Amino acid sequence: MRDDEIIGLVVGLVALVVVVTVYTGLIVLGVNIAKRKNRSPHWMWFAIHPLGLIITLIVMASLSPLKRCPNCAQTSPGQARLCGFCGYDYTTGSFMPQQQPVYMPPPRY
Ligand SMILES: [Zn+2]
């Protein structure tokens, strides 16, 4: 091999390593953003395609964060005051049980 071929090979390998490192770093960044916002990190599977990586990163960065209910582990919008699934009150931290139907005896005639 000539010297300029070896230099070209080394430069190409370094460029490949840099591209793979940046690509993986952007995927890790997207997963971290998703976890911070209580969104599913599995959305980053779209990043298999470079265009999917760009689109998913932009969407993930612009999505509003979700709250995770400490009582039932369901997610609600960030500005929610009550959990829509179990009635947990985010502001007071107390649990508001769902209203039970009141038993009404059938009327006697
Ligand atoms: Zn809940």
Descriptive account of the structure:
By secondary structure, this protein is mainly alpha-helical. The protein has two domains: 61 residues, no CATH class; 34 residues, no CATH class. 43% of the residues lie in helices and 6% in strands. The chain contains two helices and two strands, in the order ααββ. The protein has a two-stranded antiparallel ribbon. α1 packs parallel to α2. The radius of gyration is 26 Å and the shape is rod-shaped. The relative contact order is 0.08.
Beta fraction: 5-15%
Summarize model confidence as the mean pLDDT.
91
Q: What is the radius of gyration?
A: 26 Å
Overall, the morphology is rod-shaped
Query: How would a crystallographer describe the biggest sheet?
Result: 2 strands, antiparallel
Q: Distance between the terminal alpha carbons, to the nearest Å?
A: 106 Å
H/I helix tally: 2
- Taken together, the total number of domains comes to 2
Fraction of residues in helix: 40-55%
| Strand line-up in the sheet with most strands | 1-2
Summarize the structure in short:
The chain is mainly α. It has helices at residues 3-36, 50-62; strands at residues 66-68, 75-77. Zinc ion binds at residues 69, 71-72, 74, 83, 85-86, 88.
Sequence-ordered SSE layout with sheet pairings:
Elements: H1 3-36, H2 50-62, E1 66-68, E2 75-77
The site of zinc ion has 8 residues, from loops.
Descriptive keywords:
single chain; 109 residues; mainly alpha; two-stranded antiparallel sheet; 2 strands; rod-shaped; binds zinc ion
